[in-house]
Design a protein that fits this description.
Elements: H1 2-38, H2 54-57, E1 71-72, E2 75-79, E3 82-91, E4 97-100, E5 105-110, E6 118-119, E7 124-129, H3 131-146, H4 151-163, H5 168-177, E8 184-187, E9 192-196, E10 226-227, E11 232-237, E12 241-248, E13 261-266, E14 274-277, E15 280-281, E16 292-299, E17 310-316, E18 320-326, E19 331-333, E20 336-343, E21 346-358, E22 361-366, E23 374-375
Helix pairs in contact: 3-4
C-alpha cells in the first residue's frame, strides 16, 4: 500500500513539473510577441496600429548596407528648364485671305460651293451682277462714242471701273467690244481652302477632327443672294501658312515667355523635329479651358502637316541659377517630393519643394540647406512608399 502511494506521488510530481515548464514557455512566447508588436508587426504578419518610425526600419549606415550608399549635397548650378507641352497645328490667322465684293449686287453664279474646296490665285470664284458697275460701264462707253477726245473724263471713268473691281484686262476688252459686261467675274487672289466669309475666328483656325478637307458642308452664301459693298464673301485659309498652338498649364504659365526656344515633334511625322521659338503667348484663356496658348509660327508648305493634327513640344525656358539635386535623389509621393537626409542614426525622409528640371537635375526651392547630406539615390532606401513618414524641419 505504501509502495503504491509513493508511485502516485512520483507521477503527480512529474505532472506538476511539466505544467510549470509549459507555463514558462508560454510566458516567454507572449513576451517575444509583445516586443515584435512594439516594432509594428505581430506574429501573424498583421500591421500594428502604432505609427511606424522610419528610423526603426532603416538601420544606421555603420550597421547595415547603408554604408555603401553614396551621398551628395546641394550644388549651385545654372539650368535651362525644359517644360513639356502638347498642342495642335492650326491655320495662321495672320495669313487668312479675304475675298470681298467691291460693289453691291447679286451673285449670279458661284464656282465654289463647299467648305475646304481648294482654290488657287487667279481662279474665278463667282460672277456678280451690279447695277452700279453696269452704269459705270455705260458712262465710259458714252464718252468713248460721243467725246473720244476728252481724255481727262475718259481716264476718270476708267479709274472708277478699276476701283469697282474690274481688271485692266476686262477694261481693255470693254473698250474694244463696246459691249458692257452684265456680270463681272470675281477672282481669288490667294491659294488655299474656301470658308464662309467673316468666319476667321480662333475656332475656325482649329477645325474639329470631323471637319477635314473631305468635308462637303455647303457654304452659307448662295446664288441669287445680294451682297453689300465691302462685305467679305469668302475666307481663304492656306494650310501651308500655319502656326502651332501649345497649351501651357497653370504651373508653367509664369515660366514661359516670348523668345523661348522650343522643339516640336508632330504626331503625324514623329521622325521630324521642328525647331522654333515661342512667338506669342496669348494673354487670356480660351473658351472651355484653363490653359494659356502659346503660338509658334512655322512654314508648313514642305511638311504639309494636317490642320488639327497633334504635336508634343519641349519648351526651354530662361536659364536660372539655383541649388540643384539629381533627379535620382528625389522620390515622388504624388503631391509631395521627398529626399532621404543623412542623420546620426541613418536616413530619414524630408519633404522638399522642387521646381524646374533640366538635363536630369532639379532645382530645390525649400526644405534643404547646403550643409545637408542627401542619399544620391532615394529609391534604394525604400521598399514601399507606404512606410514613408515625412519629417518636417
Amino acid at each position: 500500500m505504501i509502495r503504491k502511494m509513493k508511485q502516485s506521488l512520483f507521477i503527480w510530481a512529474i505532472f506538476i513539473t511539466g505544467m510549470v515548464l509549459s507555463y514558462g514557455c508560454s510566458q516567454s512566447q507572449n513576451k517575444t510577441g509583445n516586443e515584435m508588436d512594439g516594432m509594428g508587426m505581430g506574429m501573424n504578419g498583421m500591421e500594428h496600429k502604432d505609427t511606424l518610425n522610419l528610423s526603426s526600419v532603416l538601420k544606421p549606415s555603420n550597421e547595415f548596407v547603408l554604408s555603401s550608399i553614396s551621398t551628395i549635397t546641394l550644388t549651385a548650378d545654372t539650368i535651362t528648364p525644359a517644360i513639356s507641352s502638347v498642342g495642335n497645328v492650326a491655320y495662321d490667322m495672320r495669313k487668312v485671305g479675304i475675298i470681298s465684293s467691291l460693289v453691291s449686287g447679286r451673285i449670279d453664279r458661284l464656282y465654289t460651293r463647299y467648305r475646304y474646296q481648294e482654290v488657287h490665285k487667279g481662279e474665278r470664284v463667282m460672277d456678280i451682277y451690279s447695277p452700279e458697275l453696269l452704269t459705270a460701264q455705260q458712262n465710259l462707253l458714252f464718252l468713248l462714242k460721243n467725246d473720244p477726245g476728252n481724255k481727262a473724263l475718259i481716264d476718270d471713268a476708267m479709274q472708277r471701273l478699276l476701283l469697282l473691281g474690274m481688271s485692266n484686262k476686262q477694261l481693255t476688252q470693254l473698250a474694244i467690244s463696246r459691249v458692257p459686261f452684265m456680270d463681272v467675274p470675281v477672282y481669288s487672289n490667294y491659294d488655299g481652302h474656301i470658308h464662309d466669309g467673316g468666319d476667321n475666328s480662333m475656332n475656325a483656325a482649329q477645325p474639329s477632327m470631323n471637319a477635314m478637307p473631305s468635308d462637303i458642308t455647303p457654304l452659307s452664301v448662295k446664288e441669287g443672294a445680294y451682297i453689300q459693298k465691302g462685305q467679305p464673301v469668302f475666307d481663304v485659309y492656306n494650310p501651308g501658312k500655319s502656326w502651332i498652338l501649345l497649351s501651357i498649364y497653370p504651373d508653367d504659365q509664369n515660366k514661359i515667355s516670348t523668345g523661348d526656344r522650343v522643339d516640336i515633334i508632330p504626331e503625324a511625322s514623329s521622325e521630324e523635329v521642328i525647331h522654333g521659338t515661342i512667338n506669342y503667348v496669348e494673354p487670356f484663356f480660351r473658351s472651355n479651358t484653363r490653359t494659356l496658348t502659346a503660338r509658334v509660327y512655322f512654314d508648313n508648305s514642305k511638311m504639309k502637316l494636317p490642320i488639327g493634327s497633334q504635336v508634343k513640344a519641349t519648351i526651354y525656358s530662361r536659364p536660372i541659377t539655383a541649388n540643384t539635386l539629381p533627379e535620382t535623389a528625389i522620390v515622388s509621393l504624388g503631391l509631395n517630393q521627398v529626399v532621404f537626409k543623412k542623420v546620426k542614426e541613418g536616413f530619414k525622409a524630408i519633404k522638399v519643394v522642387a521646381s524646374k528640371r533640366y538635363n536630369g537635375r532639379v532645382a530645390i526651392l525649400a526644405g534643404l540647406t547646403s550643409a545637408d547630406t542627401i542619399a544620391a539615390n532615394g529609391q534604394f532606401l525604400m521598399d514601399s512608399e507606404s512606410f514613408i513618414k515625412i519629417n518636417k524641419q
